[in-house]
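Structure ticket #2291
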Amino acid sequence: MFFPALLLAASAIAVPGLGPTAVDYFLEKIDFRELARNGRWVGVTVNLWVEPNRRISRCSVGNFAGDEASAKSICPMLIGMRTGLPRDGEGRKTYAYVTVPIIAIAASSMQGTEKLRQEFFALPIEGDPDARLTLAGSSISADDYFEIVVAVDTGGAVTACGQRGKTRQDLGERACELAQGRTFVVRRADSGEPVPYVRNVKLISESSKP
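Resolution: structure written out below.
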């Protein structure tokens, strides 16, 4: 059957994320005293295009809340950095499209952290229609960062899928079943040719839809 094979192939998928070094570098550049006086916090989602050689070659801001200047400063920092190695369902080097949220909160705003997170994660992610997958009938809070990873071919079809991190197996299986019935965005190399890639997809409940 197609679906079990899809899940088995997921063991080889590797979707790179921003390592601690890149995130720490961003946080070091934030003036938290200024953040406390003005925006008090910043949440930003960046959409990263990673080459098979691990280099981040494109970056865009998908959404942000709080301090605008801090949010818009991150992409110039990330271009040229290297991530983990993207691999497809068969373990081969590939391209990756990665959606990464980063939140920095000044000490004076810590009391409202949960409200701020909910406000941020409710925002739509521009430039990335495949960033989220809604699971009807499930209860997923803003603090549950459940994801699946998918390998996508040059026509937008899913060739492999599996859960990521601490995502529950039952949610991962349901989400992969939905994902394999969808067509994802066709993405292209700098040459203009469509290329296969891997990506992460955040799982949300119906009540969390923006």
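Closing remark: Residues 169-179 form the longest helix (11 residues).
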